Amino acid sequence: MKVGILLRNPARKKDVDLMKRFFEVKTYKIPEDLPEFIEDPGKYLEMPEDFFDVDMIISFAGHPDINLELLKLAANREVGLIIFSGGAKAGSYSQLKEEGRKYGIAVLWEEICCATPPIKNGRCSEFFKHFGTPELEIKIRDNKIADVKVTRAAFCGATYFVAEKIKGLPVDEAPSKAGYFTQIYPCYATRGIEGGIHKAARVHKRAVEKAIRVAERKEK
Hints:
This protein has 220 residues and is an alpha/beta fold. The protein folds into two domains: 109 residues, NAD(P)-binding Rossmann-like Domain (Rossmann fold), CATH 3.40.50.720; 85 residues, Sufe protein. Chain: A (Alpha-Beta Complex), CATH 3.90.1010. It contains seven helices and seven strands, in the order βαββαβαβαββααα. It has a five-stranded parallel β-sheet with strand order 2-1-3-4-5, with helices on both faces. β6 and β7 form a beta hairpin. α2 runs parallel beside α3 and α5 packs across α6. It is elongated. 39% of the residues are buried.
């Protein structure tokens, strides 16, 4: 499977490296410093033609004008799905979805990458076997987390970080600690009382709780 990634923040390179474990990845970098309104977004998207020779694209542009132009450029190509990361910074979901419908491209808009649901989208379904809402397999020994296997991870790598950190913890501590470790990982979610970082913590906490329940049922 081929994945195209539109980058803006160089720190996203770790997302690219993670996805390269599973897929052929093409990247295109746009400037970090962009004006709030862009009259000619095409001048920032002068990528080679073969960038669009992919099954799906993930845009970390975080700019509505850039993302709308990306949809236009992807029209009549083989791109089946575009994921727009960044929530409100990425643009209006309804507008992006409507434009995607116009160009025959499925659109997925996300606030935090660890809350991306697995979807069925033909050849793009393979992507969601590896990335999206976290899923874990846990082994318990002597009421402690003996081992953790990541079966589906957030794009940013937080799930792998959490999996390593909770090994050896008492079972009753692991879920809350999973939420804590998510928050100290270099996550891109917004901070603050209502920030997405708290949602990311809850998502990983629930994933650990679910994996523990499955492990405990197997022991009975």
